């Protein structure tokens, strides 16, 4: 097993617009080859108060891109004198992704709310294309969700409907994709602000052939267990 | 140097040789970017600055041709960190390997970054030493400049930008921990420049053994003694189950305003046999 393999976020990331804002969702697994390096990572990163991004692909590349874009957006906000729009944030990400396409390996979903356009989602996959979409999915787990979204997505959902859709979708992808797992994190952005939610894996709905989560025997026996080593 | 150029007329080729000799001399002195007269070749790498990956390509080509790479000192390693109720505890084993041989039975893997920040390093020993020393100096200058205690995120950003710039060729996997005005922090930094922020972390070849211990026994709000005991167990797990880790356990406890560096806190591998007759090595052997 190669522990020096570059960190990649196997990942399932989702961004969905609803009537009044956007909901971003992601799993929490970061893998190095076959080892889970971080089972509780936060793939939804803040760029500004009203714009967040979901990161997938190489962990290092996506972290660096988000750091650069946050820095540029900060300057832009100061120069502009008002909060940056989601479109500007998405285009900054696109410029970095496209101009360095030979060296970067990252798929990003930009989502946020601004007063001009309301809630918007932009998908920026590997090559640096920018696509404004009512919903976007990305990462290795997204392969399992295309059909699901074709059937389940509808215009003009409420905030709770949209969040439930996102949680269900990430949970389905986690069930089928080995590179996605852990917990489901969601971020809801609208005119009132930002809300972060957390859904631990044992609280998610069970799907086809999934077993009930069971407390590890270690928890049950730990009270009486002997010390493994004499220290 | 010898005759370069393709046997064109005598005058021309002699001039070309001279030009190339001068160009080579300049390259040795590493001065300005060199323009070689022959068509198609442009500036040498120095023109645009930045790390030159040409040697990396050459190394890969040599490896493909079957050249055995020179063995270098790696810290096989188990390094861990955890956050307890008052701060951060870092732990490391003390074995440094050179291929299959133990080169150093008692090396120090917990490096000083700032009075309130320490960093454990796994991977190539030279890389971890160099990168932590460099960023430690940088942090000190920053402290003079800002007249404030260093923050862990500062060290984190400096380390991650450095490692990202070298695209994973600086083989340093680090566990960075410290306590600053914003509270206790623990981060892992991977050779490619990605970072994670965690309540407990393990790195190195023994990371799986140590992580197994942490996953079963870690809980929030550990006391200092419980934390030190848990870190010792995790490192011992690495020492006894991983071939790349061994020897002793080093611990570093960092709390607000105070740090304790417990070098060789545990010695679970004492030397058990020493010849009673003693050794007589005559001089100059």
From TrEMBL, chain A:
The keyword Transmembrane does not apply. Component of the proteasome, a multicatalytic proteinase complex which is characterized by its ability to cleave peptides with Arg, Phe, Tyr, Leu, and Glu adjacent to the leaving group at neutral or slightly basic pH. The proteasome has an ATP-dependent proteolytic activity. Component of the proteasome complex. It is found in: Cytoplasm; Nucleus. Pfam families: Proteasome. This is Proteasome subunit beta. It catalyses: Cleavage of peptide bonds with very broad specificity. It comes from the Eukaryota.
TrEMBL record, chain B:
Belongs to the peptidase T1B family. Keywords: Cytoplasm, Hydrolase, Nucleus, Protease, Proteasome, Threonine protease. Its main location: cytoplasm. It holds the Pfam family Proteasome. GO terms for cellular component: cytoplasm; nucleus; proteasome core complex. The proteasome is a multicatalytic proteinase complex which is characterized by its ability to cleave peptides with Arg, Phe, Tyr, Leu, and Glu adjacent to the leaving group at neutral or slightly basic pH. The proteasome has an ATP-dependent proteolytic activity. Component of the proteasome, a multicatalytic proteinase complex which is characterized by its ability to cleave peptides with Arg, Phe, Tyr, Leu, and Glu adjacent to the leaving group at neutral or slightly basic pH. The proteasome has an ATP-dependent proteolytic activity. InterPro entries: Ntn_hydrolases_N (IPR029055), Pept_T1A_subB (IPR000243), Proteasome_bsu_CS (IPR016050), Proteasome_sua/b (IPR001353), Proteasome_suB-type (IPR023333). This is Proteasome subunit beta. Component of the 20S core complex of the 26S proteasome. The 26S proteasome is composed of a core protease (CP), known as the 20S proteasome, capped at one or both ends by the 19S regulatory particle (RP/PA700). The 20S proteasome core is composed of 28 subunits that are arranged in four stacked rings, resulting in a barrel-shaped structure. The two end rings are each formed by seven alpha subunits, and the two central rings are each formed by seven beta subunits. The catalytic chamber with the active sites is on the inside of the barrel. One of its GO terms (molecular function) is threonine-type endopeptidase activity. GO terms for biological process: proteolysis involved in protein catabolic process. It is found in: Cytoplasm; Nucleus. The active site is at 77 (nucleophile). It catalyses: Cleavage of peptide bonds with very broad specificity.
């Amino acid at each position: 097993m190669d522990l020096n393999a570059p960190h990649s976020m196997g990942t399932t990331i989702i961004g969905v617009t609803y009537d009044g804002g956007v909901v971003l969702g992601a799993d929490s697994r970061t893998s190095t080859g076959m080892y889970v390096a971080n089972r509780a990572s936060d793939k939804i990163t803040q760029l500004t108060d009203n714009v967040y991004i979901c990161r997938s692909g190489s962990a290092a590349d996506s972290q660096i891109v988000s750091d650069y874009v946050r820095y540029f957006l900060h300057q832009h906000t100061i120069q502009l004198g008002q909060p940056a729009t989601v479109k500007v944030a998405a285009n900054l990400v696109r410029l970095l992704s496209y101009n360095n396409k030979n060296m970067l390996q990252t798929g990003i979903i930009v989502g946020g709310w601004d007063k001009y356009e309301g809630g918007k989602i932009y998908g920026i996959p590997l090559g640096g294309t920018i696509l404004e979409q009512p919903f976007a999915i990305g990462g290795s787990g997204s392969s399992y969700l295309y059909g699901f979204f074709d059937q389940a997505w509808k215009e003009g959902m409420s905030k709770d409907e949209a969040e439930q859709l996102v949680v269900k979708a990430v949970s389905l992808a986690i069930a089928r994709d080995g590179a996605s797992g852990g917990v489901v994190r969601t971020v809801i952005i609208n005119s009132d602000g930002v809300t972060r939610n957390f859904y631990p894996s044992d609280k998610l709905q069970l799907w086809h052939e999934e077993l009930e989560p069971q407390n590890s025997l270690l928890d049950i026996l730990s009270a009486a267990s002997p010390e493994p080593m004499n220290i | 140097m010898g005759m370069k150029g393709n046997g064109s007329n005598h005058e021309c080729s002699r001039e070309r040789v001279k030009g190339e000799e001068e160009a080579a001399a300049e390259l040795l002195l590493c001065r300005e970017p060199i323009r070689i007269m022959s068509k198609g070749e442009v500036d040498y790498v120095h023109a645009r600055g930045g790390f030159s990956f040409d040697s990396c390509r050459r190394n890969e080509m040599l490896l493909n041709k079957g050249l055995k790479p020179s063995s270098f000192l790696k810290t096989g390693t188990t390094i861990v960190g955890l956050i307890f109720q008052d701060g951060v505890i870092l732990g490391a084993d003390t074995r440094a390997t050179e291929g299959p041989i133990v080169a150093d039975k008692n090396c120090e893997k917990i490096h000083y970054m700032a009075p309130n920040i320490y960093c454990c390093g796994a991977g190539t020993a030279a890389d971890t030493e160099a990168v932590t020393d460099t960023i430690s100096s940088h942090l000190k200058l920053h402290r003079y400049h800002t007249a404030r205690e260093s923050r862990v995120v500062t060290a984190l950003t400096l380390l991650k930008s450095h490692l990202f710039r070298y695209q994973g060729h600086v083989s340093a996997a680090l566990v960075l921990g410290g306590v600053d005005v914003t509270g206790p922090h623990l981060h892992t930094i991977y050779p490619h420049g990605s970072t994670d922020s965690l309540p407990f972390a393990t790195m190195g070849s023994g990371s799986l053994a140590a992580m197994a211990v942490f996953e079963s026994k870690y809980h929030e709000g550990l006391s200092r003694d419980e934390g030190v005991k848990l870190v010792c167990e995790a490192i011992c797990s690495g020492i006894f189950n991983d071939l790349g880790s061994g020897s002793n356990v080093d611990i570093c406890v960092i709390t607000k305003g105070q740090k304790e560096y417990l070098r060789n806190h545990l010695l679970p591998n004492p030397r058990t046999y020493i010849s009673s007759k003693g050794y007589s090595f005559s001089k100059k052997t």
